[in-house]
Input
Amino acid sequence: MLSFQILDESGEAVTEYTTAHEKDLHLIAVRTDGTGFQHVHPELNASTGTWSVPWIWGAAGTYRVYTDFTPAGEGAESITLTRAVEVAGDFTPVKTETQTTDEVDGYTVSLGGDLTAGASSELTISVERDGQPVTALEPYLGAFGHLVALREGDLAYLHVHAQGEEPQAGDTAGPDIGFSAEAPTADRYLLYLDFQIDGQVHTAEFVIDAKRGDSSQTDNSYSDGR
Output
């Protein structure tokens, strides 16, 4: 079991939240080499402010854990908090290579578009099965796909937004899903797409390099957040 609290400036546990992307809190964890990605939604004990979720660390290494939430209150903005967790054992890092196509659970998922540092970039992700376009994508977390993007190395959390209006229950779409992403620097980025078909969530992974733009940063300073 993984349990934690989010504390306010006075050190008191936060117990009230605003729903965003259909959940009060999103928890994301990934090992520093980009493997072991998990995106889950813990349960809150409102009396203590403690979040908890069944959990198993699949392998040794250093993991970055993110909590993405919006506190209750008028005008409150989304906050992303993060910390490192050390899992004991022998650790052999996996070296990343650029990858724009992933095979997951019988689906072929392809990433199109380029990231340009310092600018908003349009990305299109397409889903196929047995060579045929999939048009049965279901709404998941307020969109037809949920994309997380992290910068390799420091695992800075990028701004990623689904394009189009929020779908309604019973809507379907596909094979394409559009996103707008903001890469702060010309570095390598790890992308993780959650998509749902027939009530089952699948996760595809990509690795792409952002091109240098005219206004891109030259250092690695970038605050976590959305």
In short: Confidence is low (pLDDT under 50) at residues 216-226. The two ends are 27 Å apart (CA to CA). DSSP finds no helices and 17 strands in the chain. The CA atoms of residues 97 and 207 lie 7 Å apart.
